[in-house]
Amino acid sequence: MQVTNTAICFTVDDVAGSAAFLARHFGYQEAMSADGFASLTRDDAAGVIFLRRGLEVLPADFRDQRAAGTILALTVADLDAEYARLRSEGAPITLPLLAEEWGERLFQVTDPNGVVIELLDWAGAAQ
């Protein structure tokens, strides 16, 4: 198998709201969109796709579920600067900056549809 790209998909009610949030706060760019669908990309990260809840392209047994229990985790070079930037932009920080005993430092924001985005770094990791 040769993988040529990677993306994570979230089922949400307001595709445009989630897409705009990723573009505004995280520098993603819309690559394609249609009614009920948006695909966003960055050169340095996996793609993110938002699908409107209820679309027939989704498996019938979870077509009406919302994104839940999934976190989009982004490892960043300067976690403290990103925390300050997102606070200054008014992004809803739903888990403040913290350090775990195993060396992970992280915080989380939540988009208008409840999609959790976690920014993290590793204590002692080469930058």
UniProtKB/TrEMBL annotation:
Any Pfam family hit: Glyoxalase
Alphabetical list of InterPro entries matching this protein: Glyas_Bleomycin-R_OHBP_Dase (IPR029068), Glyas_Fos-R_dOase_dom (IPR004360), VOC_core (IPR037523)
Segments forming domain VOC: 2-122
Source taxon at top rank: Bacteria
PROSITE patterns: VOC (PS51819)
Protein name according to UniProt: Glyoxalase
